[in-house]
Write a structure and sequence with these properties.
Length: 271
């Protein structure tokens, strides 16, 4: 009987091996070869001794942190309001809908909005301000990146707030706490697992953003994701690109470890 149940897991295990483990092993393997196919450790040595790559690493963390902060600042109030509205599922569906649209299409839509002849500049011209350079700026990159990541922050926070028993909120209010105090002392602490999940879901992918840095940031925003793209598609130095990819994966694992739920990690939080 048990053997029959194990058979059901075979397709899943094959999928994991072929499309998760094998690509990671190939990237790790490729990172130890130079552009001439010779085994070398120079890719890693060059990465850790190059001021450019150190700057890219700092940039990646800086922009990923800013995108995460901006997304969290908008997402938490939205998630809280959604948890208090009627027809929650309809509103959630409207928030999820943009994730079904191709990322490239959304990027080009923002190019249309932010360009010199775009809708925003037409409005600024209409009110007498005149056209401004909106595209290819850090602000434009942050706005577009935060917009794209918004649903991935809202959903876990919404689920956490929605799971809080309403009796706890009523008890807080019965004891004389204001709505703000209830939000600060009851709702926010209990929704922290959702906040943590949202930070993971936004910060980790933001570390390796590369298409938006080119289309919206105009190559003003240089991150490790941009460097990986350049090495694979332009310089054809797959070894260096793979080494940067391995470093990115290690950084992502560190972030996941630091933002993990300590309850699940062994009950480190006081009961």
């Amino acid at each position: 009987m048990k053997k029959k149940h194990y058979n059901y897991a075979i397709p899943y295990l094959l999928w994991i091996v072929l499309f998760v483990i094998a690509p990671l092993v190939l990237v790790l393997y490729q990172s130890f070869f130079d552009s001439n196919g010779q085994f070398t450790l120079n890719n890693y040595i060059h990465y850790f001794t190059s001021a450019n790559y150190v700057k890219m690493t700092i940039n990646s963390f800086l922009y990923a942190s800013l995108v995460t902060l901006v997304t969290l600042a908008f997402s938490y109030p939205m998630a809280y309001l959604l948890s208090r509205t009627k027809h929650k599922q309809l509103w959630i569906l409207l928030i999820i809908l943009p994730t079904w649209i191709n990322l490239l299409l959304k990027a080009y839509a923002f190019i249309g909005l932010f360009s010199q002849t775009g809708t925003i500049n037409e409005f600024l011209t209409f009110i007498g301000v005149g056209p401004q350079q909106l595209l290819f700026t850090d602000a434009a990159f942050l706005i577009v990146a935060a917009y794209i990541e918004l649903p991935f922050m809202i959903m876990p926070i919404f689920n956490s707030i929605n799971d809080i028993p309403y009796s706890m909120i009523e008890a807080s209010e019965d004891l004389g706490a204001s709505r703000l105090t209830t939000l600060r002392r009851v709702i926010f602490p209990l929704s922290l697992p959702g906040v943590r999940s949202g930070i993971q879901a936004v910060f980790i992918p933001s570390l390796s953003l590369f298409m938006l840095t080119r289309l919206i940031g105009g190559n003003r925003v240089i991150t490790l994701g941009t460097a990986v793209e350049q090495h694979f598609l332009v310089t054809q130095n797959w070894g260096m690109g793979s080494a940067i990819g391995v470093v990115l994966m290690v950084l992502m694992i560190i972030v996941m470890f630091l933002t993990r739920d300590k309850n699940e990690a062994g009950g480190l939080r006081d009961e």
